[in-house]
Amino acid sequence: MIFKYDGSFEGFLTAVFSVYEFKCENVTIIKETQHVESLFEETEVVITSEEKANRVWKKIQQKTGSKGSRQIYWAFLSELSGVENTLFQYIQHAINSTKNITTDYSNQAVLEVSQIVKKVGREKHRMDAFVRFRKTKDNIYFATIEPDFNVLPLNAKHFKNRYADQHWCIYDLKRNYGIYYDLDSVEIIQLELPNSILNTSTDFFTAEEMQFQQLWKNYFDSTNIKSRKNTKLHQQHVPKRYWKYLSEKYL
Amino acid sequence: MNFDRIKEKLTILADAAKYDVSCSSSGSKRQNTTKGLGDSSGMGICHSYTEDGRCISLLKILLTNHCIFDCAYCVTRKSNDIKRAAFKVQEVVDLTINFYRRNYIEGLFLSSGIFKSPDATMERLVEVAKKLRLEENFNGYIHLKSIPGASDELMHEAGLYADRLSVNIEIPTKEGLKLLAPDKERKDFLQPMKKVKNEIIKYKAEKKLIKSTPKFAPAGQSTQMIVGATQETDAQIMYTAAYFYKKYQMKRVYYSGYIPISYDPRLPSIETEVPMLRENRLYQTDWLMRFYGFSIEELLNKEHPNLDSDIDPKLSWALRNLHLFPVDVNKAEKEMLARIPGLGMKSVYKILGARKYRNLNWEHLKKIGVALNRARYFMVCNSSDYEKRDLSAASIKSLILQNSASKFRNTYSNQLNLFDKADALIK
């Protein structure tokens, strides 16, 4: 049986609730947007319910502790196709087991979830590192990114602690939403951005901005040791797909 | 800000600072509690990587490259004919803040050539850190160089504003130092190191009693040695490192393969290649000492004064100690698991977690990520399929080498070829 949900985390948890409610076997949980109608399989449309989601979440927390529930959320943010089914197996294994299963790495679902979490964690950490703020004319430090996974919700706390005294915004161009900090709290926002946003045009950005990018690029080049050149290692650490957001690479 | 002038200085003074390999920005626990700028309570972050693959996490510059000393191994030595420049204190502060606000860096690593006197230089470094902390309310990471010969008072003040302090001893042996830096004495390096160590201990003890005690160099001290500038053995380097870890409670010792920068006949010739493989093996040894429970005597000693180039130091140790193997991964203690070649600490913890649920077999171990190519000769698991032949160390080594592709293969096979040729000549 197929369970279609709206793509949100609550929606997914509600879907898990429904599977247990209907006592189904052989289930597939899938986002509405990814679903292709099938003649042979029954489909159930899940209506997201905060109450049902909370009940499932509580049960998960009780069974797997803070580590397991964190892993489930992080793996969900990977948006990998089929991740819902791996997560469902993980949750089932947790609920059926009397022990906490978070380190049961010889179980296929547990191992897979831990590997996905590792990838998501790496991407989150990369965004902590690769965000490059550019100062706008109205004094907002503004950055655009396109992470492989939907990690922006995980980055908010880090940037809030670090840049407590400046307005900043990090915008995910791929998923078309951003997080904005107004010296008080972090909010989710949606903007209409011009295509030219990657150019540091003085229509939006301060005149100094380009100068600082130049200085940074200059530093980047000067701190390199030519006799130790190692392009492979360099690209392994700074994969090419991120270059268009890194002024030291695109200038 | 005069951008052109700053750019010129930055080019000179970043270039001169790049031979200092320390890049760490972690371990400080300096939180942003006053809604100021910056926070260094988490793990360090590498914001970019140079084209040689080294991490960039700090703005690493010299305050000035004017220097009254003439150490042969150093690019800023007095007798070297290079462009000189000097930053003003405020310029360094502005540059740090503007880079930090744009998320380019974790903080500042400030070193300097020694102008006028050690104290005059140290005073200026401290001034930068003080301004950043007190005027800019900056909680990012600050690493200051302790200038050999600086007074205890200045070192004390430095510790109040910096997260980390470091003095590079550079040359691992006394004889080497005498040859390459005749105006310097080892005790000048050790004096500020000792002062900082004692203060760290004192402040930590006070902090236990009075919570409001300020932080003193919370990320500790580090030092660096140049590898391959003089004729030292690996054992000499690593015993010196072990001494600093123990005696001075160093957080890190860095090893920097000598990069030829001079025609001085006391140094390796200008065409010499940077000894990257050797550097790598020294770091592996350092890790085994700090995280895997090895003592330095086990890894390097009179019989083995140098590390093997073709295999890693853990494998090399295991081959000398075959009587301790094979280890049963489902039963062995953590300490022994950590000694199996091919098993990193992450795999060790995964095994410890996973074996609580069921006995592990080869398939499980492979999926967890154990490098079985090396590990399988040294362990048994829940399987009747294990190495039953009584293999000698030499044959295990050759089996492992046959089935592996090291990125350094060319380096050491060249060396081997040379030996072969030498052998042929002797015969």
Element-by-element helix/strand order of chain A? EHEEHHHEEHEEEHHH
- Name of the CATH class of the largest domain in chain B: Alpha Beta
Shape of chain B: globular
Helix content of chain B: 40-55%
The fraction of residues in strands of chain B falls at 5-15%
- The strand count of chain A comes to 8
Looking at CATH, the homologous superfamily of the largest domain in chain B is Aldolase class I
Question: What does this entry look like structurally?
Answer:
- The complex is a heterodimer of chains A (251) and B (427).
- With 251 residues, chain A is of the alpha/beta class.
- Helix content of chain A is 47%, strand content 14%.
- Chain A has 8 helices and 8 strands.
- In chain A, helix 1 (9-22) packs across helix 2 (50-77), helix 2 (50-77) crosses helix 4 and helix 4 packs across helix 5 (152-162).
- Chain A starts with a strand and ends with a helix.
- The mean pLDDT of chain A is 94.
- Chain B is of the alpha/beta class and 427 residues long.
- Chain B has helices at residues 3-15, 89-101, 118-134, 152-161, 174-180, 186-209, 234-247, 276-291, 296-299, 313-320, 334-337, 345-354, 362-368, 372-375, 393-402, 409-426; strands at residues 48-49, 55-56, 58-62, 107-111, 141-145, 164-166, 221-227, 252-257, 327-328, 379-380.
- In chain B, helix 4 (152-161) crosses helix 6.
- Chains A and B meet through helix 4, strand 4, helix 5, helix 6 and helix 7 of A and helix 1, strand 1, strand 2, helix 2 and helix 12 of B.
Task: Briefly characterize the structure.
The complex is a heterodimer of chains A (251) and B (427). Chain A has 251 residues and is α/β, with parallel strands linked by helices.
